[in-house]
Amino acid sequence: MVFFICNEKLNTIEMNQNIQSIGISAFEGMTKVRSITFYSNINSIGMKSFSNMTLLNTIVYLGTETPSCEENVFINSEFINSIYTKPEYTGGTTFCLKSNKNTINSNGTCGERMKYITTTENELIIYGEGEMKETEFNKTIQRIIIKEGVSSI
Fold first, then answer.
1. Hey, how many other C-beta atoms are within 10 angstroms of the C-beta on 92?
2. Rounded distance between C-alpha atoms, residue 22 and residue 47, angstroms
3. By C-alpha distance, which of 113, 112, 144, 138 is closest to 128?
4. Which of 53, 55, 79, 147 is the most buried (most CB within 10 A)?
5. How many other C-beta atoms lie within 10 A of the C-beta of residue 22?
6. Residue-wise pLDDT tens digits, 95-143
7. pLDDT value, residue 94
8. Phi, psi dihedral angles at 110 (to 5 degrees)
9. pTM of the predicted model as reported, rounded to 2 decimal places
10. CA dihedral defined by 54, 58, 59, 60, rounded to 10 degrees?
């Protein structure tokens, strides 16, 4: 549990493009984290890296290669209901053995600590924390999902 000391306030994890691997239990028990974004390919994810994350519900993977995942990466993180990947993602319908049914059409920033994703199913998902700034979105959006943590739109 590398970041256990941050557990009280940490609610979003963003992995920069230089991260290649995530060690065993690196973020285990981070009970306040709601979303994780990987900005590029990850080579490997260790056992229980994201386990016992009781509020985690959104994973965004912007890489195209399937990472090597040890067992139980997300054990006891049962509220994950949205995993988003790019159309070029080679992992099919799963990410570290979690089912994936959402394909990213576009993504970007819509506030200081706010992000958005549009999916090929014409959904707009807004996540992060804080206040959203004015942003133009595709006119084909048919469904808007505002994740917990967003306080102003």
1. 9
2. 9
3. 113
4. 53
5. 24
6. 888 886 788 988 899 998 889 999 888 999 998 888 888 888 878 899 9
7. 84
8. -135, 30
9. 0.82
10. -160
